[in-house]
């Protein structure tokens, strides 16, 4: 189980890293919100422990950024005890909230409760839209036309990454920044031309009418959405 801990207090980072490592967790640490998002896209943790009062991007902004592409549990560990802070964090997408100072036994119990919700080794889904079938486990796309054998639709590795990220967030807006960071890295967050190119190529291969897409939709000025 991989846990990302983001907190600007080095003593808390050190204490939690030692405590959780001793209990068999793999720990990644970050000292500010930007570093937390970068570590998240690099390491893909199973669970997040986030402080709210971090420099740069605060905890709420990190939660909102994470929720653009991952459903992994988020436990806020913060010195802010006010109900407004708790409500804002939970509304942004956090799953639970612990106030500092905390008892380590309580924190461990909260982590156990959240990790019970992390999916195990379940079969990856197969997604069907129109005459297209996407097998997420096999990383394969086929086109099934009536009266004909299924034909493989060949995607480049980058086209697959774009498609998979959109499908795994079906029905949700995936921002351009999140796609660019996840696929090309944080130094390419302004390279929106990459996305337009790959989205156009995917539409040509997968949409019945690429000029009027039904499934790979553009959210003007924001990003893209996959719709069944």
TrEMBL record:
Gene3D superfamilies the record matches: 3.40.50.2300, 6.10.250.690, Winged helix-like DNA-binding domain superfamily/Winged helix DNA-binding domain
Molecular function (Gene Ontology), one example: transcription cis-regulatory region binding
Residue ranges of the annotated DNA-binding region, renumbered to this chain: 124-228
Positions where 4-aspartylphosphate occurs in the chain: 51
Domain OmpR/PhoB-type: 124-228
Source species of the chain: Plantibacter flavus
Swiss-Prot/TrEMBL GO biological process terms: regulation of DNA-templated transcription
One protein family per Pfam: Response_reg
Assigned keywords, A-Z: DNA-binding, Phosphoprotein
InterPro entries: CheY-like_superfamily, OmpR/PhoB-type_DNA-bd, Sig_transdc_resp-reg_C-effctor, Sig_transdc_resp-reg_receiver, WalR-like, WH-like_DNA-bd_sf
Residue ranges occupied by any Response regulatory domain in the UniProt entry: 2-115
Signal peptide: none
Highest classification ranks of the organism: Bacteria, Bacillati, Actinomycetota, Actinomycetes, Micrococcales
Acyltransferase recorded as keyword: no
Protein name: Two-component system KDP operon response regulator KdpE
């Amino acid at each position: 189980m991989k846990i990302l801990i983001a907190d600007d207090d080095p003593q808390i980072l050190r204490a939690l890293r030692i405590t959780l490592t001793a209990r068999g967790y793999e720990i990644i640490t970050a000292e500010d919100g930007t570093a937390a998002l970068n570590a998240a896209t690099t390491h893909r943790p199973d669970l997040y422990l986030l402080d709210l009062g971090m420099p740069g991007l605060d905890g709420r902004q990190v939660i909102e950024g994470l929720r653009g592409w991952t459903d992994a549990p988020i436990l806020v560990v913060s010195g802010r005890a006010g109900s407004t802070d708790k409500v804002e964090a939970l509304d942004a997408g956090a799953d639970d909230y612990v106030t500092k100072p905390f008892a380590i036994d309580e924190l461990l119990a909260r982590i156990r409760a959240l990790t019970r919700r992390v999916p195990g080794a379940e079969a990856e889904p197969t997604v069907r839209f129109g005459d297209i079938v996407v097998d997420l486990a096999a990383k394969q796309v086929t086109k099934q036309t009536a009266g004909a054998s299924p034909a493989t639709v060949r995607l480049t590795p980058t086209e697959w990454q774009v498609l998979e990220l959109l499908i795994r967030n079906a029905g949700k807006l995936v921002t351009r920044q999140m796609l660019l960071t996840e696929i090309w890295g944080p130094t390419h967050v302004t390279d929106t031309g990459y996305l337009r190119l790959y989205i156009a190529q995917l539409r040509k291969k997968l949409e019945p009418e690429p000029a009027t897409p039904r499934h790979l939709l553009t959210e003007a000025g924001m990003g893209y959405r996959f719709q069944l």
